[in-house]
Design brief:
Length: 206
């Protein structure tokens, strides 16, 4: 955490011009809200070298999982080369979205978020009218927002919230992971438990 996270952390100085926050200026900037163990974010960065990905996570366990995958503990003090097109934001994604320039993102990802099932926790869900506004502001016209969840309550909640907004075009969700979506361990766990995920692909209205 002390040695590697500062090298990967998306810098405050780049918030006003997010493309400047990477090893090389990317063609597009993407953002993932809540990267969990980081496998989806790592796969995105590896398969799309021309983009810059900001992966957000507030929980230390997830951050440690990501860093451990990028820098395996082999008993040496050597730090291998880190992905130049991947940056981490170890704070609330909403705070970053609120500060990014309008239209600065081309893609947004919300993959298998914590469903926060208790009624008193509803406001903790990222899928919330206030956050729809943040996402719409940060995404460029024509930008894409991908959402996946296996939780029936969160699926119904997502459908309800999306039906109340007009910033995104919302086709029916897919019942199988579309081509180009990297798998996640949460998805594998859900399928094994018999909980079929839904996959939304939203497009920012022009």
């Amino acid at each position: 955490m002390q040695a590697v996270l500062p090298r990967l952390h998306f810098p405050e100085s780049a918030i006003a011009a997010p493309a400047t926050g990477f090893g090389a200026v990317p063609d597009e900037v993407w953002l993932e809200v809540g990267f969990g163990g980081g496998e989806h974010a790592r796969a995105l960065a590896a398969s799309n070298p021309a983009i810059g990905l900001i992966a957000c996570e507030v929980f230390e366990n997830g951050i440690c999982s990501m860093l451990s995958a990028l820098v395996p503990d082999d008993g040496t003090d050597d730090v291998p080369a880190l992905p130049g097109n991947l940056r981490l934001w170890a704070e609330d994604a909403r705070a970053l979205l609120a500060r990014l320039p309008p239209g600065s993102l081309s893609r947004l990802y919300l993959m298998f978020p914590d469903p926060w099932p208790k009624s008193r926790h509803v406001k903790r869900r990222f899928m919330h009218p206030e956050n729809i506004t943040l996402a719409a502001r940060a995404l460029r016209p024509g930008g894409v927002w991908r959402i996946a969840t296996d939780d029936p309550t969160y699926q119904a909640w997502t459908a309800e919230i999306l039906s109340q907004q007009d910033a995104f075009e919302v086709p029916p969700p897919a019942t199988e992971r579309p081509e180009g979506w990297p798998p996640t361990r949460y998805e594998a766990k859900a399928l094994k438990a018999g909980r079929p995920p839904l996959y939304w692909t939203l497009t920012r209205c022009r």
